[in-house]
Amino acid sequence: MRRIGRSKQAYYKQLHHKADTTVKEETIVGLIKKKREIWKRGSGRNLHQCLLPELKQHNIKIGRDKFLMCSGTTNCSSNQNDAERKPLVVIIISTDIKI
Question: 24-70: per-residue pLDDT in tens?
């Protein structure tokens, strides 16, 4: 039975893939938050290298770029406080020129 050009098998495969991805991301975010409690400052590359053994224990294979993207989208990065301290200042100058 095909709906919108996809088979049943493809539909369920996509559902399982999304479920697995969210579980892995939640595990990664939990590990990052736990490590950040101890180790406040440090680069994302060093954090990735430090968490590799723990990720392997959970059978998660993730590259550095994907790891950084995951940590950045979940606000786990250490630069979050820097963004809060430096507010965005917008200055609007209106000039009315009458001729």
Answer: 888 988 988 888 888 777 788 888 888 899 989 988 888 888 888 88
Q: Three-class SS of residue 39?
A: coil
The helix/strand/coil state of 79 is coil
Total domain count for the chain? 1
Give Cβ neighbours of residue 94 (< 8 Å, ≥ 6 apart).
none
Q: Domain range spanning residue 71?
A: 8-85
Alpha carbon of residue 76 to chain centroid: 8
CA–CA distance, 25 with 76 (Å, rounded to integer) = 12
Instruction: Tell me how crowded residue 66 is: count the other CB atoms within 10 A of its CB.
Output: 13
